[in-house]
Amino acid sequence: MKRNVYVENMHIINISDGSTCICGRSEDLHAYTEALAVQRQVPVFYEDEGSFEDYPIFTRDIPKLPDISDVEMDIIQEHNLIRVNRVDVLSVASASTVQIGTTEQLDLEARVKAIRHFITDQPKALERYKGIIILPYPD
């Protein structure tokens, strides 16, 4: 039985980085994102820094779950309508999804490398600086 979806009110503030919002049925859903999240106490960034190839997390194989399509299952759907009154979502990010309905196959992958740089002896000239410094990459 195909099911219909009725959503009275959906409020999503942010959808980003390969993410989706689906009201209804989908066959296959594939989403992928990769990101370098760099945070520095003093925001100094070089123009050419941040190559994904420099970090093994972006090329490492991810183990796949075995196919379980041979599992026998009985599903009883007494109603052909999915009714939702209200959904509030702050953010959907990094290859994730918000779905009201059904999906046959999901393949979602997010690879994020978080880098944090903190200093202990901050130069006096930067004590009150609140902006971002972008420098040419040193040769």
TrEMBL record:
Annotated InterPro entries: Spore_germ_GerPE (IPR024496)
Protein species of origin: Paenibacillus ihbetae
Pfam families the UniProt entry points to: GerPE
The name this protein goes by in its record: Spore gernimation protein KA
